[in-house]
What we know:
The protein is an all-alpha fold.
Amino acid sequence: MPQPESLARYPMERLDSTIREWFLVAQDEANRRGSRYLTTGLILIAAGTSKTVFAERLLAALRLRTGVQLVEAFDAEWESSRPFLHDEPVTAVKESILKSAGEEESDQLVSPQAFVATMLDFPSGMASKILKRLGVDPSDAAHRLRSGIAREPSP
């Protein structure tokens, strides 16, 4: 575990290991799709399809029954624009790291729910665009994640 001094200097080290694992999965998917760019959408898909308890909570917060809907919306959004322009601003991933790390106590790691909620604070980020395709308000989803509110999706 990183020491508190390094946490203050290196925001990436402030991310929970689960989040850092999503980054690896997301980068592999970007490479598979012929892109070099890591986007909030790629990270959202990695989180939502990770077969973890958090993935179940995330899908519940998004009011989705399965990750299939999330993947389909991601694919549609990916095809709708050039990879460099998926996130607006293009620095949304970096800004999400910095913002989420800055909001936590200096000796705390950023939680998965806090990080995903921070990505959803970018209304023109790919993660938010994916949710809009699904009829989910990104601000409401971010609030549910931050509040720990995750209800079962309606039938």
